Structure formats: C-alpha cells, structure tokens
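Predict the holo structure. Ligand: zinc ion.
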Amino acid sequence: MSLVENTLRSHLPALKTTSNGWLTMNCPMCIQNGQSRPDTKKRGGLKFEQERVGYHCFNCSYTTGWRPGQRLGFKLIKLMRVLGIDEGEIQRLKIQLWDQVVEDDTVIEEAYKKPAWLEIQWPWTVRELNLEAAEYLDSRGIIELSDWYTSTSPVQGMDNRVILPYISDGKIVGYSARWIGDVPDKKTAKMVTSRPPSFVFNLDHQSHSRKYTIVTEGEYDALTLDGVAIMTNTISPEQAKIIEDIDNEPVVLPDRDKAGLILAMQAAELGWSVSFPEWPDGIKDANEAAQQFGRVAVLQSVLSAIESSPLKIKLLCRRWCV
Ligand SMILES: [Zn+2]
C-alpha cells in the first residue's frame, strides 16, 4: 500500500464500495467548488487501484489523484484537509513525496444566444467518467471545464474514448470522442465526431461583456481559454457570421503548424485579429501551453500578443505557424 493510500485510509470512515470499486462519500468539496448545496447523495468517489489513488465528484467534478512517482498535488492536499488529516501529517507526506502545487480556476460566463441546432440522441449508451478517463482529462487540465462521458460500446472504440458533448441551449447537438492516450494503429481515429453544419463550439460561454472572442481550431483549446472552436482550419462563412454576431473582437489563435497558417491568413482576410503568443518552441496549442504554465498565464500570453494589422498578421504567421 502506498504512503498516500495509507494516509487516506487511516482517516476515512467506513465507506460503501460500488461494483466498480469506487468508495463513495458525500463530496466535501462541492460548496468550495461552486455548488449551491452540499452533496447529500454520495456523489464523491475515491478509488485505490494498484498503487494509484483517484478522487472524482460526479456533482461538482472535483478530481484529483496521485500515482507513484508523482508529487502530492494541491487538490489532493485540499481534499486531505477537509477529510480532517492534520497539516503536519500532510506536510510530512508532501516532503516524502516532494510535491509542488499546480492550480487554475474556472470562469463561468453568462449564456450567449446562438443558432438553433438540432438536438441529437446518443448513438450508444453513455456513462459517467471512469478513473482512466478522469485521469486523462485531469492531466490535460480540462476535466472541470465541461461535462464528460465515457461509453462501454465497442463501436468505433467508444469504450476507450472520452466523450465531450457539444451543448447548445442546454441540448446536446453533437460530440467529439477522443481516444484516451495514443491510438494503437493508423486505422484508429484519434477523434470521432458528430456536429451540425457550421457548428461553433462553446458559444454558451460567450458574452457581450467581453472585449474578445478567442477562436481556436480545437475544442480542448477553446475550453482552456474559454473561447470558441471551429474544429477545422478554415472558417466557413456561416461560422464567421456566428462568431461575429457575438459582437466582440474575434481573435484567432492558430495552431503552430501549417494548418494554423491557413487559418491565420483567413483571419487576416476577414479582418479579425490573430494572437502570436511567445511560447517556447515545441508548444503547439493553448492546451499544451496550459499544461506547462496554467490557464491564467496562457490566457494572459494570448491577450498580450494580439495583432490586428492584416499585413503584420500575414508576415508574422509565416514565422509563427511552422
Ligand atoms: Zn463535489
């Protein structure tokens, strides 16, 4: 048994175990995590698997964990504190595991009026996150930024994918289902998606009170920056209209590759701004950057590198998108 598991177990009351191994409890994090009422339905779950520890709340989405070789994260420390583990013991454990804290926060925005895309039914049964999917999303720093699902269906490998619902006016209008980890072969698609024509992701989170609408190619980047995503590297005219209808200055954040170059050039043509943040070489998009520097720092880097002159955009994107 790991030191972390040992510490947690020695402070836990007797807990019920679900059939798939979660120890269930009333989540002690819900209020701190923005819920209006404390959890009374035992939505919090702890899982000890081999040497690993995972915690996920199916109510407020609080997720944390630890595995051998990792430092003790701040979120697990927070959870330990509310579970009544004393500070001295936490600090001793922290030193034993040599930990550092990484955190970021979530901004919730008022809804924005958007096109009436049609509701869809899930083509397979979906269920809540399992530990593997939760850990994957937590490692990418996006678990708290959306609802997520998994499925046990073998169709298109759904049983090894994490499913992001596309929500519009509270309805599910599409999804993307990403393979967890690296795909095993070339036949396996990294992403399986379904979306209505001209769909723009994350419009629900946009509001007129903002100065900018950040436009990214991928949904994970849009979640990271609370911007919108177009899911391709070319903006369709309908998408352009939808984004402009928000009435904020669109700022395209292209991926740092050849496809990004096309998008940046198109943004210049549309008269939109483009951001060329100063990230170290090798960082390709906002989500990757956030995994290193945190979402707040990445957002700042994007906002401080906005270029609005079409001529300068066309010059800069050749250097930036490589
Ligand atoms: Zn909770």
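The chain is about 30% helix and 20% strand. The pocket of zinc ion is lined by residues 27, 29-30, 33, 39, 44, 57, 59-60, 62 (CB under 6 Å).
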